[in-house]
């Protein structure tokens, strides 16, 4: 049975990402498009027959989930932000894939550019995923730091609807830099291209901070749409001098000013 059905035309390479995700200009390519749509619960002929039979016996229970179709409007103005210090950011959906049995949806959300080396101590920027929010509710994960256990709203109320059906995989720099959120540990993390269906080692997502969200279709959970995701992250680059120098000299997201032209 196909639960996610028709996802998009050209699902093999959504939004122009294709097999060139390891190219140096991926940030510009990702920024051009954000189009996502998928159908949930494609009703098969056999299910329709079962439903017709049920109507004769229990008409009030013969309600079949017809699913929904969702779409995010395309935008040519999408840009990848640069996070310095601590920030709470949304993201840009730049790829989406279905599992072979069409029961799981994977979508990739780019959060931020990865910044460079700090001028003050020559250390590389380091990132921490502090909290992840789904529909404005903070996700509390199971011990693996990946699988949702429950969510908490602003009033402290718990919702177990996402338990076991939502997984979030965090990456800080490229597809081979997996992490778990703060206060979690997991010694069995894998690369993004071993998670997202159809991805290969060519899908490196170089110099990007991103997450992969996996949703298993479950009408009981109420997850019949793409949830809104927000990520609170910290970048170790916080000193004003480091920030200014990094932005002025970056040829990827900054001003591309030659270091020799800056009096440090």
Protein described:
Helices cover 11% and strands 28% of the residues. It has three helices and 13 strands; from the N terminus they run αβαββββββββββββα. The strands form three sheets. It has a six-stranded antiparallel beta sheet, with no helix packed on it. A five-stranded antiparallel beta sheet has the order 4-5-12-10-11. The radius of gyration is 21 Å and the shape is globular. The model is unreliable at 1-68 (pLDDT under 50). The chain has a domain at 78-261. The longest helix is centred in the N-terminal third of the chain and has 13 residues, at 45-57. With 264 residues, the chain is mainly beta. The chain has helices at 26-31, 45-57, 240-249, and strands spanning 36-39, 69-72, 86-89, 92-98, 104-113, 127-134, 137-141, 148-152, 158-159, 166-173, 178-179, 208-216, 229-235.
Average pLDDT taken over every residue: 79
Number of E-state strands:
13
Helix content: 10-25%
- Helix tally equals 3
Name the poorly predicted regions. 1-68
Q: Quickly give the structural class.
A: mainly beta
Rg, nearest Å: 21 Å
Largest sheet, in brief, is: 6 strands, antiparallel
Strand order of the largest sheet: 3-13-6-7-8-9
Give a short summary of the structure.
Helix content is 11%, strand content 28%. With 264 residues, the chain is mainly beta.
